[in-house]
Amino acid sequence: MTTLIVLALVLAVGYLFSIKAHPFTACRVCKGGSRHRGAFYTYAYRPCRRCKGSGRKLRLGAQLLGRDH
Length: 69
Fold this sequence. Notes:
The protein is α+β, with helices and mostly antiparallel strands. The chain has one domain. Helices cover about 35% and strands about 15% of the residues. It is built from two helices and four strands; from the N terminus they run αββββα. The model has no long low-confidence stretch (mean pLDDT about 85). It is elongated and about 60 Å long. A two-stranded antiparallel sheet has the order 1-4. A two-stranded antiparallel ribbon has the order 2-3.
């Protein structure tokens, strides 16, 4: 039982360090490309609405910890 608690604690601390080092992930909509291509005219594009053209999104853990850009 204590081994399970220690393992959970180690994983939680590792996740917190990961959030601190890498708070962003690729945007799901544009897949990190920051552009949304047109369906009919594929050469045309616009900035992604979800990430506003940055291509990245703040991870859930970083949002919960109040870490902003």
